[in-house]
């Protein structure tokens, strides 16, 4: 786990002029749960640089999922083509980001309360992901419980979402019941019934790509 600190580091912030920043902002805004509400204001977009080891682990997972699908005569064509890759969001908070846009974010912090750095550093192995990693199709959904925000008064807490490439593989709903062979389970989101989460079993199926800080 410790080695991941060396292998995964934040690379660079995408400034306003970069075309990829526009693309990421559009993806984020289109994926809000309630588009009729005032759009969320994006403060910063940070690209996550993944090491070659992490990229390799992600691609190896894809190969395993595709191979399983072929062997089991899977009827879902996307699984055979690319492992059923989806772009999903992991909603959390970030506490190590300065309000000063001139300050570069270049590495993971060590604050226990910083959800972004802890999720990336641990390869989504935090207390919130013990029973699978809850990713959402909605960019403003929270994957972690936010009770802790009350304990963070005085800290610079920012709402954040980690944009993740995800090899969803074979997906089941809660109604279908859990099955060893499913790679992910769909769960509806509690009080906000319009929210949908995909509970991904294997962290190797997830590649964090960008962190978006928003208000
Ligand atoms: Zn941090």
Q: Give the beta-strand count.
A: 9
Spatial extent as radius of gyration = 17 Å
Spatially, the strands of the biggest sheet line up as: 1-2-9-5-3
- In whole angstroms, the N-to-C terminal distance is 31 Å
**Shape estimate:** globular
Work out the count of structural domains: 1
Mean pLDDT: 82
Q: Give the DSSP E fraction (strand runs of 2 or more residues).
A: 25-35%
CATH fold name: Phosphoenolpyruvate Carboxykinase, domain 3
Task: Indicate the structural class.
Answer: alpha+beta
Bound molecules: zinc ion
Keywords: Signal
Signal peptide: 1-16
Can you walk through the features of this model?
- The chain has 215 residues and is of the alpha+beta class.
- The chain has a single domain, classed as Phosphoenolpyruvate Carboxykinase, domain 3 (Alpha-Beta Complex), CATH 3.90.228.
- It is 23% helix and 27% strand.
- It contains five helices and nine strands.
- The chain has helices at 3-7, 19-30, 52-71, 77-82, 115-121, and strands at residues 9-13, 42-49, 85-94, 133-136, 158-167, 171-173, 184-188, 196-200, 206-214.
- The strands form two sheets. Strands 1-2-9-5-3 form a five-stranded antiparallel beta sheet, sandwiched between helices.
- Residues 1-7 have low confidence and may be disordered.
- Bound molecules: zinc ion.
- Zinc ion binds at residues 94, 96, 109, 111, 114, 116-117.
- The site of zinc ion has 7 residues, from helix 5.
């Amino acid at each position: 786990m410790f080695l991941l600190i060396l292998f995964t580091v934040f690379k660079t912030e995408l400034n306003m002029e970069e075309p990829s920043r526009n693309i990421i902002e559009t993806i984020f805004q289109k994926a809000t749960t309630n588009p009729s509400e005032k759009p969320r204001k994006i403060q910063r977009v940070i690209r996550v640089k993944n090491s070659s080891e992490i990229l390799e682990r992600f691609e190896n997972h894809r190969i395993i999922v595709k191979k399983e699908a072929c062997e089991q005569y899977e009827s879902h064509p996307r699984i055979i083509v690319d492992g059923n890759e989806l772009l999903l969001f992991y909603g959390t908070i970030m506490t190590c980001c300065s309000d000063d846009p001139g300050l570069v974010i270049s590495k993971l912090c060590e604050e226990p309360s910083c959800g972004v750095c802890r999720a990336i550093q641990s390869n989504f192995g935090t207390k919130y992901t013990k029973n699978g990693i809850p990713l959402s199709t909605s960019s403003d959904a929270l994957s972690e419980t936010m009770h802790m925000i009350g304990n963070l008064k005085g800290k610079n807490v920012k709402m954040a979402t980690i944009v993740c490439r995800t090899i969803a593989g074979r997906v089941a709903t809660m109604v279908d019941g859990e099955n060893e062979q499913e790679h992910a389970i769909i769960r509806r989101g509690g009080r906000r019934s319009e929210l949908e989460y995909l509970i991904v079993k294997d962290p190797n199926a997830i590649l964090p790509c960008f962190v978006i800080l928003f208000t």
